[in-house]
Structure prediction request, 408 residues.
Amino acid sequence: MDLTYPPEAEAFRGVIATWLTENLPAGWGTPGFSMTPVERKAFNEEWTATLYAGGWICASWPTEYGGKGLSLLEQVVLNEEFARVGAPLRADFFGDTLVGPTILQWGTEEQKQQFIPGILKGEIAWCQGFSEPDAGSDLAGLKTKAELDGDEWVINGQKVWTTQAQYADYIFLLARTDPEAPKHAGISYLLVPMRQPGVEVRPIEQVDGSSDFNEVFFTNVRCPRENVIGGVNNGWKVAMTTLGFERGTSSTTGHRRFLKEYHEILRLAQERGASTDPLTRQRLARVWSRIKIMEINGYRTLTDVLNGTHHTAALGACNKMFWSEAHQDTLELAMDILGMDSQILQGDDDDDSILPGARRARAGYPVNNLQALFFFSRSETIWGGAAEIQRNIVGERVLGLPKEPKPA
Prediction:
């Protein structure tokens, strides 16, 4: 694990720091700095254009497609500097982090010219159509099918847990295009327009009243024949690269949101007198220790990617399992500190300060930051690879244990 960066990376850090100073509002990040709701709304509306003009959106992408061609380490430094001052670096997760890099790696030149500019400018909203009711952990068991009809694919089936589907213009979708092939071999990766007849989006309301997740039903939905990424029946291989694109670039900054939560929980404990309780103090110390482990694990992941030592799948499984379970414990501590007050809505519908990772619940259900985080943390050991699956990966790939027997 290497905790030092070469001089050229530190020089690049200075470039980013200077640009942030010149482009953020005066006083940003200083004690007492605040913005009115009107000022914050105006800032949010203008900031994406400012980032785009500076070339910092998808800056690691090749220059011929609108990026700056940053190296992995330069992208890490970029993320670190934005995180250091709390400046938002636009992250349209599905467009910037998943489907965009997939198109760049697997797409034809025509596909790149069609979709990449819209992703960079934020003109196309995306969602991901992988999981199905009977194909979550066993994704290759998916049943949504696409059949060729002239110059179009006709899609029928269902997807579930489809985040932001209600806002999406396109869905990058896995569908079975060869029912006779082995289940991993007969899948294709399609870019399907969402705003057409036959697409039905049904929100799945969460315990906090929000509904970012959805079920999506496809009934004779049409997709251009040329919207297959990576070739027909090659979708499994393409999808596996999609799921691996986030690795590395956010490795040294991911722990920061947990550290902000920790400071909020510590403040709450001090306000309520719980910080003098020995058991609570021990739990707070355990939370801080786990966050430091997350930080160190991030550097281990970055070092692995930079050195090409190919341990990222195992490290990713260990890290996902560790932080998701630790985060649940952290938010349980927060609820214990709140005590019976945790059962009462503690938020404010007009509150404009949201911790990283927290979500605003529906209007009329004003949970506060910690309550919102607690609710969502319950899902974190499921999405992105259930904890049980992560343990299988660690057992088989790290410890060399026999593979889990397949069901009869």
